[in-house]
Design a protein that fits this description.
Elements: H1 2-20, H2 28-36, H3 39-70, E1 71-72, H4 76-82, H5 91-102, H6 107-116, H7 128-153, H8 156-164, H9 169-180, H10 182-198, H11 201-205, H12 211-221, H13 225-250, E2 268-269, H14 272-306, H15 312-348, H16 352-361, H17 369-384, H18 397-420, H19 425-433, H20 438-449, H21 451-467, H22 470-475, H23 483-492, H24 496-519
Parallel strand pairs: 1-2
Helix pairs in contact: 1-15, 1-16, 1-17, 1-18, 3-7, 3-10, 5-7, 5-14, 7-10, 10-13, 12-13, 13-17, 14-24, 15-18, 15-21, 17-18, 18-21, 19-20, 21-24, 23-24
Length: 525
């Protein structure tokens, strides 16, 4: 089992190692060319975007989590679980919806010019600020979920002791509640920053030149694979720096509850204007991140149907839907199956080697999709050039699914590990005494007991694969397109109504899955 676990970890890490290995023999002529062209601009823009999204998601996620956890107001119980919904929104979908609505030729600016004249001013949506706004609205649930859990886990006695010492509710929040929740907040902000770092679709629509966008542009558009690979290695370093920043933000402090049977903080009932202001804040965020795109996509879809486009379902939609669902299902089942094997090994042996192995195997989720795609492409191209290798793997289904598994293996592993932790150890020991091996124990005892947790892992990976754009663009076989690719390509041509149907389908599938997992308590980040 140990050998299998080592091979599995190496299999997961190999694309990342391939990209990281570029630093062992850097091609200086490529770096000089990049530096003399657009690399400084891409580095600055990427840094500003990542920091801006980190700040935006921290403010939105933490503020909304404290609001629904510490106060009662009209609609609070509904907002508490609806605010997780934007996690299902593909960032490029919200980006092109905002482009269609708020760009110079959109209905909002047209209406303003009709009312106020041609000199009417409106902030430029096609900008770095627009990209930060859209990505913050999509990614704040990473912080919201973890912050809400951290706030609910804090004992009421600790909060009440601070109030007895003369602190106001706001002072207690800043001086006590936030420091206690710092590890969770740092993790949520880091996840959001990593997603912003790897984003391609949203920044492309807003004409923001980032490192991730540059990789896809050079690889797909200019066919300059040397420069794209150099940028991928730089993006890998940037991702590692963000992870290091998360460790610094956590600090060395550790906080524990003195009693496992603690009493939760009782929410304060807001009344009058304050209650409605709280509801308005939650409602505005929800409308901006979810309600507005849902309404606009529905309108565009109806508009497209009104054109009477022939064969849109038979020729395009069902084919792309089958491809998307098939790819997502294959990748999610494979990821969860492999993750369960590794998690079982981690449970059966407690050692430092096992801890290092696990951390390495789950590092793919911290890596941008463009980096993993570049690593897979280089690896498969190398194999295709070998005379002893008789298969053609470049631009194959194997390469695409391989990248998906590497990218989202962490989600699958966290679900499998959390489920296996709940299996009574005495059952496993009894099976071992009866001569059962690890494989039989997993198949006959553990798998039936952890089926709901594994299903949650499959669902999480399934939804993320449906939304994945950079890896799909770089690795998909010729002629194989997904709903995400269809929506992106149509939106890139400003065909908003054509892109609406696949976008709405992705959003409805993702939203259903995310809300179900959140309500069931199975949402693991």
């Amino acid at each position: 089992m140990r050998i299998i676990s080592i091979l599995l970890t190496f299999f997961i890490l190999l694309p990342i190692l391939v990209v990281g290995g570029q630093w062992l023999a850097p091609r200086w002529e490529v770096w000089i060319h990049l530096w003399n062209t657009r690399l400084p601009e891409m580095m600055i823009t990427t840094a500003l975007l990542t920091l801006g999204v980190g700040a935006g998601t921290f403010l939105l996620g933490t503020g909304l989590a404290w609001l629904v956890s510490a106060y009662r107001f009209p609609g609070q119980t509904v907002f508490e679980w609806l605010l997780i919904g934007p996690l299902a929104m593909p960032s490029f979908v919200l980006a092109y919806v905002y482009m269609g609505l708020f760009d110079f030729a959109g209905p909002v600016q047209k209406a303003l010019r009709a009312w106020l004249g041609s000199a009417a001013w409106f902030p430029e949506i096609r900008s770095l600020g627009g990209a930060i706004l859209v990505l913050s609205l999509v990614l704040y649930p990473y912080v919201y979920v973890l912050a809400r859990a951290a706030f609910l886990e804090q004992a009421a006695s600790t909060f009440e002791a601070a109030r007895l010492m003369g602190y106001t509710r706001l002072q207690t929040f800043w001086k006590l509640v936030l420091p206690l929740a710092r590890p969770s907040l740092a993790t949520g902000v880091t996840l959001a920053m990593l997603e912003a770092l790897t984003d391609f679709g949203a920044v492309r629509f807003f004409s923001v030149s980032t490192i991730s966008e540059g990789i896809v542009r050079l690889w797909e558009g200019a066919l300059d694979r040397s420069s794209a690979l150099a940028l991928a290695s730089l993006l890998l370093v940037a991702a590692l720096l963000v992870i290091l920043l998360e460790r610094i933000l956590r600090g060395e402090a550790r906080f524990f509850q003195a009693d496992s049977h603690y009493r939760r903080l009782e929410p304060l009932q807001l009344r009058g204007v304050r209650a409605w202001v709280a509801a308005l804040i939650c409602g505005c965020v929800l409308v901006a991140a979810l309600g507005l795109p849902l309404a606009q996509l529905s309108f565009w879809t109806v508009q497209e149907f009104g054109k009477g486009t022939p064969g849109i379902f038979d020729a395009v939609f069902y084919r792309y839907l089958r491809t998307s669902v098939g790819l997502a299902l294959l990748a999610s089942l494979l990821a969860v199956g492999l993750a369960t094997m590794l998690a079982q090994y981690a449970r059966s042996t407690r050692s430092r080697f096992r801890a290092v192995l696990t951390r390495l195997a789950t590092s793919g989720y911290a890596m941008p999709g463009a980096v993993i795609a570049a690593g897979v492409l280089i690896l498969l191209s190398f194999l295709d050039q070998q005379k002893w290798f008789s298969f053609m793997l470049t631009s194959s289904l194997f390469g695409l699914v391989y990248a998906y598994v590497v990218r989202f293996f962490s989600l699958a592993y966290n679900s499998a590990e959390a489920s296996l932790e709940k299996v009574t150890p005495s059952l496993i020991e009894a099976a071992r005494l009866m001569g059962a091996g690890p494989a039989r124990i997993l198949y006959r005892i553990q798998a039936p007991l952890i089926s709901s947790g594994l299903a949650a892992g499959v669902t999480l990976v399934f939804v993320d694969v449906l939304k994945e754009l950079p890896a799909t663009l770089l690795l998909r076989p010729f002629g194989m397109d997904t709903l995400a690719i269809w929506a992106y390509m149509a939106a890139a041509e400003s065909l908003w109504s054509v892109a609406a149907l696949p976008s709405l389908t992705l959003l409805v599938i993702g939203l259903t899955a995310v809300l179900f997992l959140f309500r069931a308590g199975k949402l693991l980040l």
